[in-house]
């Protein structure tokens, strides 16, 4: 397949759009605080001291401050048990001063992560990780989207990508990214194919994708020669060295639109988290509108 005549892809700038989303969330948070005397509050829960997780939590708390969202940080030791973590999350679920709960993952192999997620009250699941939220995403009900898939949908809309009738291929099937991503795309009338580590002849599927979502967690895993010319390529991977799951140079020569790493999906994830925290606070404080 020759790529010499293909146009260079247009970049999908997540940084600029996310900044606008955070500014809008900040305005809504300020208006909510003026009406109710209470600012939205996001509780972040971190088990252990994994350096990447510590960095992510610090970044999220900094963004919270910019958006007028209070943050409460719960740091638990690495040897925390599932029962102890469930109890801590249960207390936050019952605390009327907390409007959103974020459990930073991974939590460690000795903890039942699903049990911990399910301890989050659905109305405070602003990260969209509970079974309730997944059902809402799948059935088109009112609820919170998983933040990365939700952010990707916002970005696709921002760049006027019409999903109706398009073939969308999701590479990856994690509970908080791949699976909900496919459900959100299906809800927008795309025809969805899930691919994963057991898929045979991956390129046969990716080369048919009008919209490709890469979410495998393997650096430069997908290349331009595996893509359909003119495809929209969303790289939801983030690997050491600021590298995504897509080989950017070869993919950009084939795609029509592509997200950079960093600066594409990542900022949208955090902006979606903050937006949904303000949404949650607005509903809980009875001050919608």
TrEMBL record:
Matches recorded under Pfam families: THF_DHG_CYH (PF00763), THF_DHG_CYH_C (PF02882)
Highest taxon above the source species: Bacteria
Family annotation (InterPro entries): Aminoacid_DH-like_N_sf, NAD(P)-bd_dom_sf, THF_DH/CycHdrlase, THF_DH/CycHdrlase_cat_dom, THF_DH/CycHdrlase_CS, THF_DH/CycHdrlase_NAD-bd_dom
Catalytic activity: (6R)-5,10-methenyltetrahydrofolate + H2O = (6R)-10-formyltetrahydrofolate + H(+); (6R)-5,10-methylene-5,6,7,8-tetrahydrofolate + NADP(+) = (6R)-5,10-methenyltetrahydrofolate + NADPH
Keyword DNA-binding: no
GO molecular function annotation: methenyltetrahydrofolate cyclohydrolase activity; methylenetetrahydrofolate dehydrogenase (NADP+) activity
Positions with a binding annotation for NADP(+): 172-174
Keywords, ordered alphabetically: Amino-acid biosynthesis, Histidine biosynthesis, Hydrolase, Methionine biosynthesis, Multifunctional enzyme, NADP, One-carbon metabolism, Oxidoreductase, Purine biosynthesis
Recorded metabolic or biological pathway in which this protein acts: One-carbon metabolism; tetrahydrofolate interconversion
GO cellular component: cytosol
Location of the Tetrahydrofolate dehydrogenase/cyclohydrolase catalytic domain: 12-127
Listed PROSITE patterns: THF_DHG_CYH_2
Domain Tetrahydrofolate dehydrogenase/cyclohydrolase NAD(P)-binding: 146-284
EC number: 1.5.1.5, 3.5.4.9
Coiled coil: none
GO biological process, any: purine nucleotide biosynthetic process
Family per similarity comment: Belongs to the tetrahydrofolate dehydrogenase/cyclohydrolase family.
Chain's role: Catalyzes the oxidation of 5,10-methylenetetrahydrofolate to 5,10-methenyltetrahydrofolate and then the hydrolysis of 5,10-methenyltetrahydrofolate to 10-formyltetrahydrofolate.
HAMAP family: THF_DHG_CYH (MF_01576)
Subunit structure: Homodimer.
The name this protein goes by in its record: Bifunctional protein FolD
Organism: Streptomyces noursei (Streptomyces albulus)
Gene from which this protein is expressed: folD
């Amino acid at each position: 397949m020759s790529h010499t005549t293909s146009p260079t892809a247009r970049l999908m700038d997540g940084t600029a759009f996310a900044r606008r989303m955070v500014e809008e969330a900040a305005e809504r948070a300020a208006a909510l605080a003026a009406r109710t005397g209470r600012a939205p509050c996001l509780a972040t829960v971190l088990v252990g001291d994994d350096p990447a997780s510590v960095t992510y939590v610090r970044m999220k708390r900094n963004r919270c401050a910019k958006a007028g969202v209070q943050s409460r940080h719960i740091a638990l030791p690495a040897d925390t048990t599932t029962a102890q973590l469930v109890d801590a999350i249960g207390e936050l679920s019952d605390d009327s001063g907390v409007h959103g709960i974020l459990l930073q993952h991974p939590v460690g192999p000795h903890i039942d992560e699903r049990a911990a997620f399910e301890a989050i009250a659905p109305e405070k699941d602003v990260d969209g990780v509970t079974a309730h939220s997944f059902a809402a995403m799948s059935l088109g009900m009112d609820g919170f989207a998983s933040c990365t898939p939700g952010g990707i949908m916002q970005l696709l809309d921002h760049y006027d990508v019409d999903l109706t009738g398009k073939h969308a291929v999701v590479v990856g099937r994690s509970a908080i990214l791949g699976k909900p991503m496919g459900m959100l795309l299906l809800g927008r009338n795309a025809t969805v194919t899930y691919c994963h580590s057991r898929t045979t002849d991956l390129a046969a599927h990716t080369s048919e994708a009008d919209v490709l979502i890469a979410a495998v967690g393997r650096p430069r895993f997908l290349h331009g020669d595996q893509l359909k010319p003119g495809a929209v390529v969303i790289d939801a991977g983030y690997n050491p060295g600021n590298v995504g799951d897509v080989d950017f140079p070869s993919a950009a020569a084939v795609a029509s639109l592509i997200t950079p790493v960093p600066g594409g999906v990542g900022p949208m994830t955090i902006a979606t988290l903050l937006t949904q925290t303000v949404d949650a606070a607005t509903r809980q404080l009875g001050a919608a509108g």
